Amino acid sequence: MIDKFKNIFEGLTIAYGQYQKGEKGENGKQKGKAFIVRQQVTKELFENHIKGVGPALGIIPITEKNNCKWGCIDIDEYNLDHKSLISNIRKLDLPLIVCRSKSGGAHVFLFAKEYVSASLMQNTLKKISKTLGHEGCEIFPKQTEILVERGDTGNFLNLPYYNETKGLRYAISDDGNACSLEEFYKLYDLYSCGQERIKQIKIEEKEIEEAFTAGPPCLNKLAATGFGQGSRNNALFNIAVYYKQAKPDSWEDELVRANAEHMDPPLSNAEVQLLIKSVNRKGYDKYRCKDAPINAVCQSGLCRTKRFGVGFGEEEMPLLGNLTKYTSKPPQWFLDVNENRIELKSEQLYSSPLFALACLDQANLVVPVPKAKDWKQYYLKPLLQNVQEIEPLQSLDSTNVILDLLQDWTTNRQSARTMEDIFNKLPYTDADREFTYFRMEDFYNFCKRNNWELDKTKTGNLIKQLDVFVEEDRVRVKKQQPRLIKIKALKQIEASTTQIKYEEEHF
Q1: What's domain 2-199's superfamily in CATH?
Q2: How far is residue 140's CA from residue 151's CA, in Å, rounded to a whole number?
Q3: CB-based contact 6:55 (threshold 8 Å)
Q4: pTM for the complete prediction?
């Protein structure tokens, strides 16, 4: 039974995901942190998941070869009608299986009998989500390519059937009932399909007329489904913010029209005029995304791509999402920009102009440059709220890289025969091979020739953190007193030992 479950949910083999619970916030919502564990994915992990032992198991669907055997549409909506969703899926003849998510939403899976490209899986699910009326939902795999050689892993999804007998993450049958694990296997056998079947999935792409052109997806969705009577005031407030940006010369008239057209029953004229007065106040013309009815259908990532969405501007931003922090020293960041995986330094992530340059360099993308305040408020902060952390590979951690560089420079290359030869830009090791001496500038220049990117000061601080570091002091050599770094002499690496190729850029 476990073997079949493991086979169904195969993914990246060198890492898996977990979620660490934190304290509850002021709103009562559980806080936590998603992180990647860099260990081999074993059968025991799947067994513990099914038994409910330890944290739930998260699998990264995209493999090292950028293919996958499954994908998922994550519909994160409260009070979702699962039976109605499944009914719609069957009417469209889509080979999908719906599982209840922990939050009460749905994980809609597409299973392949053999590996298919991540791009085929992702593109197919994006089209399906739009057809089902859930455009903008998270799609797994989130990437079509991951930078494994740079330490990247992609994003994980928590699997169903955690604590099989008592858990709430189960598949749902066509008649709306919870399925046992054995019944889930029967659904899998029925609906899993080959690559050709996935390619043949016919999706009728309908042009959906937007009530609020280039506006927040939440408003357009609510306009189609109806605004609840108990949240009309907040809904109309957000509509007012939209029209103030989209139609600044006539926004008040447009708001009166929208009230009559979309609110059932409409708010009184006095309430509308009070709302107009409120939105006209300086600093109050911002969307209220965290209040009903907006919060239930919020699609923040997609919203930020709309001209008059959150963080509105003259140009539409690309879709930004799936921020991953690689906790090396210094940290590296990976971010999805549309369908491109971008690698960033902290300063590039923090600064919108530097971010735009990184997009140009790595993906040939020209992106708008928001004001610093808007970049931090509407883009950076939301991304950091859902950041996923990855522990660094030991071989790529900067402390290990600098140690390897030291070893290479002091043992595998030409060394000084005498202390005086230090002035020839060489390291000197004493006759007893107990200590090695060198000038910082000479070693730093060697590092720079091997694509080292940290500045001289940070490099020196890293050396001082190493166990081999002894001291830094002025030493009399001939008639001079150069400042030298003293370290414990390192042993020469055997020729058979695998070494890092410094020609490759690590940072």
Answers
A1: HP0184-like (3.90.920.20)
A2: 19
A3: no
A4: 0.61
- Spatial separation of the C-alpha atoms in residues 444 and 450, rounded to whole Å: 10
* All residues at 6 or more sequence positions from 129 whose CB lies less than 8 Å from its CB, including other chains: 73, 108, 135, 136, 137, 139
3-state SS, 274-338, equals: HHHHHHCCCCCCCCCCCCCCHHHHCCHHHHCCCCCCCCCCCCCCCCEEEEEEECCCCCEEEEEEC
Mean pLDDT of 139-160: 89
Contacts of 169 (CB under 8 A, 6+ apart): 99, 100, 101, 102, 107, 158, 159, 160, 161, 162
pLDDT in tens, 432-483: 899 999 999 999 999 988 878 788 888 988 898 888 999 998 988 888 999 9
Closest CA to 145 of 337, 305, 10, 352: 337
The per-residue pLDDT for range 27-69, each reduced to its tens digit, is 444 556 788 888 899 999 999 999 999 899 999 999 999 999 9
Give the C-alpha separation, 51 to 159, whole Å.
13
Domain spans of the chain, in order of start: 2-199, 217-297, 317-390, 395-488
Q: Which tokens in the block code for residue 376?
A: 């931090």
